Fold:
Amino acid sequence: MKDSIGDKFHDSTKLKRGDTFPPGKRVPAFKVYASPLETIRLPAPKAKGGAGVWSVIAARRSLIPEVGSSVTPSEIAQLLWAAQGITGERSATARAALPFRASPSPSGAYPLEAYVLVRDVKDTFAGVYHYVVREHQLEQVRIGDITKDFSSALLGEAGIDVAACAIVLTGVTERVTASHGERGHRYLYLEAGFAAQNILLAATALGLSVLPISTFYDDELSFLLGLNGNRELPMCVILVGR
Structure:
């Protein structure tokens, strides 16, 4: 039987005795836009209080947002912080002093980036925004409502035209392959899952409706986000609303 693409992927990324990782190279873990259209400082995230973790896990459901749903910048700030936000600083000698983030990353590579496609967020213009982890802020990289094209890229998935926004997680492959070789591709997908689950649980704790989506036309979604070819790949989409 002919091997599937999935079989070839796992065979190509297996770790065998005697294998070595690339020597000590590190790729910057933060994406920076030289001239964003606008920057928006997000409200500080809450790190204490809220619903208990066991009750949140039990209550988590994938739900299509309701018509006319809207969310606030504070809620978006909490979701982005739960996915990739800084939760503490390392010692000056540890792993180049990279800060801890809300989801784990092998060797502190942090290959993920987060974008918000805004339709109806209070006091925020429609458009595409990139989450700046270090400053906990959004930078606008595309202005205007792209719901029609976004829906087309997601094969007309139900709920896109009523969701207040969508969070898209992307992965910069070079950050993990530079230090882990081909094995890094596995870490990329694992980390996207870690971050996505944090978003889903945080949204549940806030009483929001969220719907994770993994089926989309990759190239079309990359174009809408302005991604740089195969160097940064869309990993998953999460619709957010009430």
Remarks:
- The mean pLDDT is 92.
- Residues 162 and 176 are 36 Å apart (CA to CA).
- The chain has seven helices and nine strands.
- The radius of gyration is 18 Å.
